[in-house]
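Before going further, learn to read the protein records used in this course. A complete example follows; check for yourself that the lines match position by position.
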Amino acid sequence: MGFDIRDYEKILDLYCTIEDWQRLLDDLHSRNMGMIMDLVVNNTSSEGRLGHSMNAVSNIGNLHLFAINQPELNWDNPSVREAIHNMMRFWLEKGIDGFRPDVINMISKVYQTLRFPRRTPRPNLAEPNIHQYLKAMHNGVLKDYGDVMTIGEMPGDLDPYEASKEKEKHRSEKDIMYPIYKKGRDNARTPMQWSASANAGFTNDGVEPWLKVTDDYREWNVDEQLKDPDSVLSNYSRMIYLRKTHPQFFYGSFTAVDEDNEKIFALYYEWTVPDDIYLGGAVLMVGNYEVKEGAVHQTIPLQALEASAYVVLC
């Protein structure tokens, strides 16, 4: 389940039927909402019809950069690309509003560079036909369906400002991909740092985790955070406790103001306290506006940018 897709035109019975799914899509559209679907086309399932079988001649197994049951799709094969385009049309014809392509910058590879041990860092896989394939996906499929949306998920992140600076250097599309990969998402997926013990307490000593533990784990770990009352963890714990023990934080509503204004997001916020909560004994603990004495009421209108926090003495 998840990223090893056995059938790209069905929904796993464990989740729902295709009729259930269609009803969800129709209900979303009736509420002026859209649906985008994961597009997992870098790899497939070894149990699916797109999965590659063992090569009996060369005795070479599947290329799988993630899990052994998730063989990589060979995008250099025109038949594979055509099958993917047809699958995308299948869901677009049903009315979805777009796709979220998974690890889309890894679909093109230079296979001669992939002879590396399992634990050797992956080479830059944003090679060399990715833009050709993405443009063909747009021109051959997406542009025929109007205002559809795509959100490319990539093992890397380069914000628009950084990307524009790279383009100003007159660098090629391929060159721009390198800093994106260098800032890969795996930097945020390192093992959880529980303690200052071996491997940050994530695995037993001598058991090497898949990704390297960051070098600062002896200073930054859960044990140290718990000891420090001013740590991020301690502060968040207090905030969560405060919210859970004070139901006043659960109530409130807002009304949008001037919704058509594209430059200003404005709203009117009002906290209407349930009848079973009496504010006569309320004490204002935090407020960024001056509060007049005796100004505590059952309904509390707030000014622009105003926030107030009360502790109710019951």
Notes: The longest helix spans residues 78-93.
